[in-house]
Structure formats: C-alpha cells, structure tokens
Automatic annotation (TrEMBL):
Binds 1 zinc ion per subunit. Its EC number is 2.3.1.286. InterPro entries: DHS-like_NAD/FAD-binding_dom, NAD-dep_sirtuin_deacylases, Sirtuin, Sirtuin_cat_small_dom_sf, Sirtuin_class_I, Ssirtuin_cat_dom. Gene3D superfamilies: SIR2/SIRT2 'Small Domain, TPP-binding domain. It catalyses: N(6)-hexadecanoyl-L-lysyl-[protein] + NAD(+) + H2O = 2''-O-hexadecanoyl-ADP-D-ribose + nicotinamide + L-lysyl-[protein]; N(6)-tetradecanoyl-L-lysyl-[protein] + NAD(+) + H2O = 2''-O-tetradecanoyl-ADP-D-ribose + nicotinamide + L-lysyl-[protein]; N(6)-acetyl-L-lysyl-[protein] + NAD(+) + H2O = 2''-O-acetyl-ADP-D-ribose + nicotinamide + L-lysyl-[protein]. GO terms for molecular function: histone deacetylase activity, NAD-dependent; NAD+ binding; zinc ion binding. Zn(2+) binds at C172, C175, C198, C203. This is NAD-dependent protein deacetylase. NAD(+) binds at residues 63-67, 73-75, 144-147, 241-242, 265-267, 299.
Length: 334
C-alpha cells in the first residue's frame, strides 16, 4: 500500500543529503555535527553508554559473529565461496541462486552439512547482544546470518530481524507445508537423503530452508522494521560483516547524523577514504570524523573488551557459562 508519509520522509532525507554534498563541493562547507563521544575509541563508546544511557541500540551482525561457533563465513580465504569447487557450479554464488536451486537442488543440500553443522552454540558476541536486551536498551538486532544462533542465545523473536531469513523453519516449494529445524537437520544429515522432500504423499515437493536466495525478495519484516527502527536509533553497533551486501549494508546510513556508530570487525570495511569529499560510508578514517569508531579484532574479543569497559564483564561471563552448561547437558539440535 502506498504510504505518502514514508515516501515524503525518504524524499526529505534525499534532499538534505544532496544539499549537504553540494555545499561541501561548492562552498567547502560541511554540516556541523557535535560529537556525543568523549573520544573516538571503544572507551568513548563505553562512556557514552554509561553517561548518556541510550535506550534504542541497534545491532547489525554478519557471519563474523558465528565463525567461532564453527560456522564458516562467506568471503574470507577459507569462507564458503572458496570451498565450492567440488560442486561443479557455474559460479560460486550459484549455490544460493534460486533459479539454479530449482533445477539443481543437490549441490546446496550436499553443502548444507557444512553450512548448518550440528550442535553449534551461541558465541560471546551473541550473548553480548542478549545482554543489551536484558538491560532493556536493545531496539532491534538485524542479522545477515541464517544460523538462528540469535534465538539459541535466548533472544525473543520480536527483537530479531533476519534480513536473509534463517533455517529455523523450512517450506515445501510445492504445497507450502512448513517444517521445523529439527526435521530439516535430520534430513540434511541422513546419508540416504540426497534432497529433502515433502512428506505429504500427494505432494513430495522439494523442501527448502527459509533462507533468502539470490533472486528472492527480502522478508517484509526487514523493510517495515527498518523504516520504524533506524530513525529512533541512538547507538549503532556493527559486528562481523563485510558491509557489501545490499540493502543490508545501506542501513548504516539510516541513523541520524549525530548517532555514534561502532564497528567491531577483523577488517576496516564500509568506510570512506580519508581524503573523500563527501561521506557515503562509515567515517572512522576521515579527519572530520565525529562519531564513528572502528575496533579491529574478532567479534568475541571486541564485545569482551567493551563489556569490561562497561563493568558488565561478570554478567557476560555468567551468561556464557550458563549457555555452556545448557548446551552441554542438552545439545541444540541444529
């Protein structure tokens, strides 16, 4: 349905961005932004949380938050796209292409054993986001991951937006019948099952995990929640993502110009060049940066360092320990 107010807001933001860029190029002017951070460091972010008490923190995560759980990322030298030679694909991304899947589902399900390993557990990074929720300051968790570890960490479903879907559920491509994760996991690891098929005898269609393939529309919830959430955001934390896949990567631009943004990652991604004339990405490398912080390292190391600065270290350790006990006595069936 056409929403005049939303379209008007988008147009207003576009006009403002264009005017700012024009002033920068023509007059050398930059829009003034008063920094809310005492310093452009992890300590500055911690001080902001303690002193300014943000209530609408948004977290954006990618594959880097799950690698310590044994789930591969996609674009590193040992990631998913580097390990597909044996499947004789026309190109690496074909394994997640819906058109290719429709005619050749076998490669995906062979590879699914690697993509969806059994008995995985949430990482410290997952538990840190859960800690934000426990403290009542998490607005929403936007994730590119399809592993559903957010939910295993205890996150309520309404707090999570799975931008690329997840394998929490699966759907028959023919009749639409739904299946849970346990059913799909059993099929994937059954040596006698090459491709999971619907158990309705009159159907027997291919059952596909509810992850978003290339060529499929993003979940409606991604659009509705992002329109609602990002204008309210007062702290953006980005972890373990290359920030190259759209439209997920573009969300970093949807917060207000003075909202602090923290990137925890092994590589400096999504940033402007130091000498850039206008800001189109994260600004941590720019001399006129007033709000962006880049902390280089693993997601687990980053959240532990931030928790220590916040005096939350003991709480985080307790959550991790409780999870270890929980999943040791009753391993997750994923």
């Amino acid at each position: 349905m056409f929403n005049r107010e939303k379209v008007s807001n988008i147009y207003s933001k576009f006009v403002q961005s264009f005017e700012n860029a024009l002033n920068t190029v023509v007059y050398g002017e930059k829009p003034s932004t008063l920094s809310k951070l005492s310093e452009l460091s992890l300590k500055g972010v911690a001080n902001y949380i303690k002193e300014c008490k943000p209530k609408n923190v948004i977290v954006m995560t990618g594959a880097g938050t799950s690698t310590s759980a044994g789930i591969p990322d996609f674009r590193s030298s040992t990631g998913v796209y580097s390990c597909l030679q044996e499947y004789n694909l026309p190109h690496p991304q074909a394994i997640f292409d819906i058109s290719y899947f429709e005619s050749h589902p076998e490669p995906f399900f062979r590879f699914a054993k690697t993509l969806f390993p059994k008995n995985v557990k949430p990482t410290p990074a997952h538990y840190f986001v859960k800690l934000l929720e426990k403290k009542g300051i998490l607005k929403r968790w936007y994730t590119q991951n399809i592993d559903a570890l957010e939910f295993l960490a205890g996150m309520p479903e309404e707090k999570v937006v799975t931008a690329h879907g997840s394998h929490l559920t699966s759907t028959c491509r023919s009749c639409g019948k739904k299946y849970d994760r346990k059913w799909m996991t059993e099929k994937i690891f059954d040596p006698n099952t090459l491709v999971p098929h619907c158990d309705t005898e009159s159907c027997r269609g291919v059952v596909k995990p509810d992850i978003i393939f290339f060529g499929e529309a993003l979940p409606r919830r991604f659009m509705t929640c992002s329109f609602e959430d990002f204008p309210k955001c007062d702290l953006l934390i980005i972890m373990g993502t290359s920030l190259v896949v759209q439209p997920f990567a573009a969300l970093v631009h949807e917060v207000a110009d003075d909202v602090p943004r923290l990137l925890i990652n092994l590589e400096d991604v999504g940033g402007d060049s130091p000498a850039g004339a206008s800001s189109t990405g994260l600004c941590y490398a720019r001399k006129d940066n007033m709000r962006d912080v880049f902390w280089k390292g693993t997601c687990d190391e980053g959240v532990k360092a931030l928790a220590e600065l916040l005096d939350w270290e003991l709480e985080l350790q307790e959550m991790i320990a409780e999870g270890e006990v929980k999943f040791t006595t009753a391993p997750p069936n994923v």
